């Protein structure tokens, strides 16, 4: 049967987001950042919980001598404590000053993550842990009438940004001397997606939450991926051989039943159906096989979605440079932008005033007020080693 642009008939369906080892989904009436700090504070303050965490996230932890295990846990605890202190102080500051303290908060959480993953071996308290930022920042003046370039340069992969990148984006470090543009990196931050569109920068949006529906008929299984119509999927060429776009009419009833999307909502989404179903042979797990092949098609471009349960995973578009492209995530991009803004607060507070008086003011203020929660959410989940989704009720 010719299925060109048409939905296959399925007997059953189910929905599940991409997860790591396990999923914890919680609801709360507290502020979300309070819940995430409570989640990370438990293993940071209770040794038994911390030892259990480090055993699960660092393969070498259990084989270390007890004094070394305690050293590792204490360093993890110290970074978490410092991170929370800087976060709370930043929350009380105006947006033109808070990036400095927010950056110090997330820098410490990045170090806590590196400790939890065993990327930093335990050292005695009297030995200095000499870690640098792993990034440098500078302003490149624009031509008359053109905006300045907000330049970031990647440094040694063994320092903080490099460790964070390898722990959360791709196992191979971004090469030293790679140059990034902070304005382009804003396109990875979902929290300011609407602001980017309003500011006429929709083309820079590079982080796309997706729907994911698993369909089965007999011994065949396939998946349906829904992504915003504005996403430039040419940046993910590996999808072409694996998926085919469906017509709106063929999919509108299914997505209403499965995702609760009305026709007018579905029109803003492109739905892609797997071209060739997989054949199931018990005890095959269709979800895992479908997930594995999707991840293999676009390596280091598929990420969890942690901001609630509306979407099921995210596409992170590769970051293009003059010499190639590199995997990039919302976490790494937001961290790098916060570092850039913190460097302005430290060394060029007058330039922060200029931003506040420019057309970029609304966008940067939106980032500074929105990014802390997304950074906290993703760093806590990465440190805990499992998918943690907390929603307000």
Key structural traits:
15 strands, alpha+beta, 2 domains, single chain, globular, 393 residues
In short:
With 393 residues, the protein is α+β, with helices and mostly antiparallel strands.
Distance between the termini: 46 Å
Shape annotation:
globular
Structural class designation: alpha+beta
What percent of the residues sit in helical stretches (DSSP H or I)? 40-55%
SSE pattern: EEHHHHEEHEHHEEEHHEEHEEEEHHHE
Number of strands: 15
Give a short account of the largest sheet. Answer: 8 strands, antiparallel
Radius of gyration: 22 Å
Beta percentage is 15-25%
Explain the overall architecture.
The chain is α+β, with helices and mostly antiparallel strands and 393 residues long. It folds into two domains: 118 residues, no CATH class; 244 residues, no CATH class. It has 13 helices and 15 strands. The strands form four sheets. Strands 1, 6, 7, 8, 9, 10, 11 and 12 form an eight-stranded antiparallel beta sheet that branches. A three-stranded antiparallel beta sheet has the order 3-4-5. The radius of gyration is 22 Å and the shape is globular. The termini are far apart. The mean pLDDT is 94.
